[in-house]
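Hey,

Quick one before I head out. I ran the complex with heme C overnight. Inputs first:
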Amino acid sequence: MRRKRINILLFILISGFLGLLLIYSANPGLSQDMTDEVNPSKGMANNMYAEENEQCFRCHGEKSYVLEDTILGLKKKVSMCEQNRLDRNEFYNSVHWSFSCTDCHSYDYFEFPHPLSLRFEEYLNCIDCHGYDDNFAKYKFEEIEVDHMKSTHYQTSDGEFHCWNCHDPHSYKLLSRSSENLTEVILESNLSCLKCHGNTDVFELLSDKKLGNIIPQHDWLPNQELHFQSVRCIECHTEVNDSLLIAHNIMSSDSAVRNCVECHSQNSLLMGSLYKFQSKETRLESGFMNGAIIHNNSYVIGANRSRLLNVVSVLLFGLTLLVMAVHTGFRIIHRKK
Ligand code: HEC
Ligand code: HEC
Ligand code: HEC
Ligand code: HEC
Ligand code: HEC
Ligand code: HEC
Ligand code: HEC
């Protein structure tokens, strides 16, 4: 009887311990930390200008619009070309969800056909609104701009390569800060490069060069598909910048990372780039655990620096020994009786 009770007690103790470990390694603090940037009140219903914006969305938010000749009283349906189409849902969930279209575009766009002069209108740059503003200090827009100006994009285009060529002002979301899902962060980031490097029409608007095919250009990389799903293009193509979360200096391709060990090693370069935000947050949260690598689904071979896992395995080993010792102890005591 007594032995049975002790066995039950032991069982409860061990399951409790394992349960605690599980909870700890799921680390709920992490997800809270990373989503605190999301403004809960986004959405069309909360935008003061939604009605006014509909004046633009009725054409720019649809695949087609109604062209009207008010003098002759004629109407017909015409298609809205894809480049000029915006998605309401994306807009109202982007960082600029609270804007009116005319915050950035001329009021004269209410006229249709739009006056020709508008086509030569200079767009506002990100820095015009975000530079030297304490509300946005943590993003370091000024430093990003300096980094961007060193990039091959900027240098080879006489400065015609703008921030908005990568960051669509109508849909940009702060994924690397707001998403818990590393796979999504990587996908979105890579799509922002591929919208040019995978599309001749867009590419050739900016360059007289012919667009090369990036798949044969990365033939030297084994498991290319897996790599493109597990790391961002910018991991290999930017110069690591310690003061920025996202380095912006895209170097010419002869300086790109090709060396496997840069990632497949204990001090993987990914700790300073892809896992930077997560690892900083987790270090604050839980002291020694390297959450980034355990919590995301891409685990880089050779880069496991989790002391937690080491401690856990030692603990589990110790515990097994202890259980065996106690068990044997009781058996001996009971046999004596
Ligand atoms: C009746 C449909 C219609 C309405 C309403 C409309 N647009 Fe347009 N818009 C177009 C079409 C068609 C084009 C592409 C041809 C052109 O530039 O005229 C265009 C082009 C544009 C362009 C791109 C110009 C360029 O340089 O390529 C911008 C920016 C724009 N519209 C903004 C707006 C804004 C802002 C509003 C609301 C205030 C608005 N539009 C309302 C039909 C419309
Ligand atoms: C935060 C500033 C900002 C806001 C808000 C904004 N735009 Fe734009 N818009 C831009 C910039 C910058 C460009 C140039 C982007 C480019 O060339 O890729 C642009 C380009 C466009 C174009 C040309 C097609 C394209 O994407 O290049 C259209 C059409 C357009 N805007 C319509 C709108 C409408 C409609 C709204 C309101 C729902 C709106 N914009 C709100 C900054 C803004
Ligand atoms: C017309 C001024 C203006 C322009 C141009 C502009 N922004 Fe913004 N942006 C703002 C304002 C204002 C907010 C805050 C919106 C809110 O949350 O109500 C904002 C929000 C943001 C945020 C989120 C900040 C946060 O802490 O929530 C980011 C990131 C951002 N913008 C990036 C950009 C980028 C990149 C560009 C250029 C492609 C750009 N912005 C162009 C005015 C602008
Ligand atoms: C070649 C493409 C490219 C260009 C050009 C570019 N960016 Fe970025 N930027 C990125 C990518 C990729 C990310 C990471 C994706 C994300 O937002 O999570 C990023 C992230 C950012 C962030 C978020 C950083 C953070 O700390 O969370 C800001 C702010 C930003 N860029 C501003 C700018 C400004 C301002 C410019 C122009 C001076 C610019 N970017 C030009 C590709 C670009
Ligand atoms: C708006 C279109 C556009 C986007 C978005 C874009 N690129 Fe580019 N990229 C270009 C063009 C155009 C060139 C060629 C410039 C030249 O040499 O004429 C280029 C050149 C490059 C080069 C240099 C190749 C060489 O010959 O040395 C690299 C590397 C590169 N891009 C990487 C990236 C990465 C990484 C991203 C995403 C963060 C990105 N690009 C996003 C248009 C784009
Ligand atoms: C593992 C590192 C790595 C990743 C990830 C990577 N690249 Fe590259 N990339 C390189 C290297 C190294 C070269 C130079 C290859 C050469 O010169 O033979 C290169 C070459 C290029 C070139 C120039 C080709 C030329 O010679 O004109 C472009 C453009 C490019 N990459 C874009 C991208 C884009 C877009 C992505 C994301 C989808 C990406 N790269 C992902 C390492 C990488
Ligand atoms: C920019 C960082 C980076 C570079 C550079 C890099 N890798 Fe990787 N590699 C990764 C990541 C991240 C994964 C994904 C691991 C996963 O999801 O299982 C990966 C996966 C792999 C895999 C697949 C393992 C599996 O589970 O199937 C092999 C093999 C590999 N890399 C070999 C290489 C070789 C060889 C090189 C040099 C030519 C290289 N890698 C360069 C980051 C990198």
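Confidence is low (pLDDT under 50) at residues 23-38, 283-299, 301-305.

Talk tomorrow,
K.
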